[in-house]
Amino acid sequence: MGLESIPKEGSRVKIQSYKHDGNIHRVWSETTILKGTDHVVIGGNNRTLVTESDGRTWVTREPAIVYFHVDYWFNVICMFREDGVYYYCNLSSPFVYDEEGLKYIDYDLDIKVYPDGKYHLLDEDEYRLHKQRMDYPEDIDKILKRHVDILQQWIERKKGPFAPDFIKVWQQRFNNDFKSY
Who is most buried in 8, 90, 96, 170, counting CB within 10 A? Predict the structure, then answer.
């Protein structure tokens, strides 16, 4: 990835989620980039307008840190609630970035992680249905299964965005440096 494909720190970008068939799935109107390298993008948002594929809109309820890595088929949303940090992990293509925003393909499977460290794989029925309907290639199926395993290892080992220091550093950075929220 060249420098033109890295969002600049402090910039505000859209996050666009697509489905395998190319249709838009969901758009987050604005995320502040806290770190952008050719491998990792970390952003923060709070009370962000989200538009669903059917046009419905809603606003996020709590501050969140988002984590994207170009080498992994998942992204992680760390949501700060009164009773602790919840993680919502999307199995997805690695991200790409252009003038429209940060983009990825959502592959249905999700893992929700609770503040106590317990986690659950979600939406396996939706994955099977979409795999058949949108004709996911076997290669994609294998990659996604491998990355579910990698993601579960990260959760259990408190690696990457699941590390307590990650949360402290990026939550503080978002709160202190981007008070306009």
Answer: 90
